[in-house]
Amino acid sequence: MFEEWKRQRAVKRIRQGDGRPLEPFRWWNLITGRKLFFLYGTGRAGEVDYAVDVYLSGKQSDADGYGKAHLYRDGRHSAEARLPAVFPVEGGYIEMEASMVGLKRAHYVAIDGDEIQLTADPRSAVGRRLRFDREHPIASRSIGVVSIVALVIGLGLNLLQLLEPILGIPPIVEQFGRFDSPIHLPLWLNIALGVAAGLASAERALRLRYNWLLDAGS
């Protein structure tokens, strides 16, 4: 029920497209952070193709600072909406959702509940990372494990250090006693752990991986 309410709320944010053609992905779009995804053959005869062009910042994003998704139907601009975006299409919905460092969702959800991850443009950062995952699965899994370890260590150590001032509030100290963190790291190491956690979250975003505790905490 709640998910359906969120979906309908997102649908109301859709604005009509202007019919412009889809621009191909260029190498400099890697710098601007543009993300491009495709959904092929959702029509009855498999002839309807969609593309979703996502901008998390810049002139193509939302004026209020939100990222924006642009939907193209058969190569023409059909609709646009700020993220999180939901576009009704043949047989279901296209759902796009951003995280703090990228995208955490780019899926086609059929009416019966089946989900398909959209195909990333092979020239985009997401497409390159997913291709590396297919071509070098062992190395890719190793990088994924390192990302999780970096997030767990960064989150755990920072949480321990944050608990000390939080639990040092006088009413809490009077009720439960004082909590002294067993770990006090130098500033440079805290910064290094924060940077490592940020890079780990960015790497996971390139694979559209997201965990509310690990990635939101980074």
Condensed summary:
The chain has helices at residues 2-11, 29-32, 125-135, 137-166, 170-176, 187-206, and strands spanning 15-16, 35-39, 50-55, 68-73, 76-82, 85-89, 92-98, 103-110, 115-117, 119-120. The protein is 38% helix and 23% strand. A hairpin with a 4-residue loop joins strand 8 (103-110) and strand 9.
Features:
six-stranded antiparallel β-sheet; globular; alpha+beta; 218 residues; four-stranded antiparallel β-sheet
Fold and architecture overview:
Strands 1-5-4-3-2-10 form a 6-stranded antiparallel β-sheet. It has helices at residues 2-11, 29-32, 125-135, 137-166, 170-176, 187-206; strands spanning 15-16, 35-39, 50-55, 68-73, 76-82, 85-89, 92-98, 103-110, 115-117, 119-120. The model has no long low-confidence stretch (mean pLDDT 83). The chain folds into 2 domains: 2-121, no CATH class; 136-206. Helix 3 (125-135) crosses helix 4 and helix 4 packs across helix 6 (187-206). Helix content is 38%, strand content 23%. The chain is globular. A hairpin with a 2-residue loop joins strand 6 (85-89) and strand 7. The protein has 218 residues and is α+β, with helices and mostly antiparallel strands. The protein is built from 6 helices and 10 strands; from the N terminus they run αβαβββββββββαααα. It starts with a helix and ends in a 12-residue tail after the last helix.
